[in-house]
């Protein structure tokens, strides 16, 4: 609905920053895990629905807010979208979604080669926002003081996203991963081109995209 309204009302789009994120457990009304749907599938679908406009307004950029937590991600393509098993299911789910963010940027860049649309995955740092509002009550007295002492504030956490959105000369780094406003190498799984392609194709199926046109199937 948002994409349809935006495309009707706004003729220009040069920048898309995918920043939505949750760390809570549970499933959505679509039957997918909450973190995976919000943190990855929502970004994937929105980007696809707006991609034609981004291309027509090029040069343009897509920034996908990932996390260093991608290092603990493990994508199981046969059960993609379902909460992982185990006591740390919610944490693993979050990490999996962040690995998906980095791989999404990598495959999107591959598909956009030769265009003037570029994309970047970023680690914003450990930021004191409401991301952790769904943490278990028993964990909050232990965890929240650390957040207040050591995490950066939202303005500081936005710097790497803004760097990738606005800094000149980053086009040659499309598909790469940034942290602290610098190019960095992600975890080896996040550099796996075959996994990136498989995730893309699975994500298309999960969100109901009909072919390469970016239109949801009825």
Q: What labels would you give this structure?
A:
218 residues, alpha/beta, Rossmann fold, five-stranded mixed sheet, two-stranded antiparallel sheet, 42% helix, DHR13 reductase, NAD(P)-bd_dom_sf, oxidoreductase
Description:
The chain is an alpha/beta fold. It has one domain (1-207): Rossmann fold (3-Layer(aba) Sandwich), CATH 3.40.50.720. Helices cover 42% and strands 12% of the residues. It has 7 helices and 7 strands; from the N terminus they run H-E-H-E-H-E-H-H-H-E-E-H-E-E. The strands form 2 sheets. A 5-stranded mixed beta sheet has the order 1-2-3-4-5, sandwiched between helices. A two-stranded antiparallel sheet has the order 6-7. The longest helix has 23 residues, at 34-56. The radius of gyration is 17 Å and the shape is globular. Belongs to the short-chain dehydrogenases/reductases (SDR) family. Keywords: Oxidoreductase. GO terms for molecular function: oxidoreductase activity.
């Amino acid at each position: 609905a948002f994409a349809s309204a935006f495309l009707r009302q706004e003729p220009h789009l040069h920048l898309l920053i995918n920043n939505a994120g949750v760390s809570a457990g549970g499933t959505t009304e679509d039957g997918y895990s909450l973190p995976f749907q919000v943190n990855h599938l929502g970004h994937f679908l929105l980007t696809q629905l707006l991609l034609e406009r981004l291309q027509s307004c090029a040069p343009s950029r897509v920034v996908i807010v990932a996390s260093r937590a991608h290092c603990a991600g493990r994508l199981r393509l046969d059960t993609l979208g379902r909460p992982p098993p185990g006591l740390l299911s919610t944490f693993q789910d979050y990490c999996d979604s962040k690995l998906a963010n980095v791989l999404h940027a990598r495959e999107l860049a591959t598909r956009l080669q030769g265009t003037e649309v570029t994309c970047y995955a970023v680690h914003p740092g450990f930021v004191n926002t409401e991301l952790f509002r769904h943490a278990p009550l028993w964990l909050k007295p232990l965890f929240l003081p650390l957040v207040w002492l050591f995490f950066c504030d939202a303005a500081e956490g936005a710097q790497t996203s803004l760097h990738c959105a606005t800094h000149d000369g980053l086009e040659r780094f499309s598909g790469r991963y940034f942290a602290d406003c610098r190019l960095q190498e992600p975890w080896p799984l996040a550099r796996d081109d075959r996994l990136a392609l498989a995730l893309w194709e699975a994500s298309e199926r999960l969100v109901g995209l009909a072919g390469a046109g970016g239109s949801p199937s009825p």
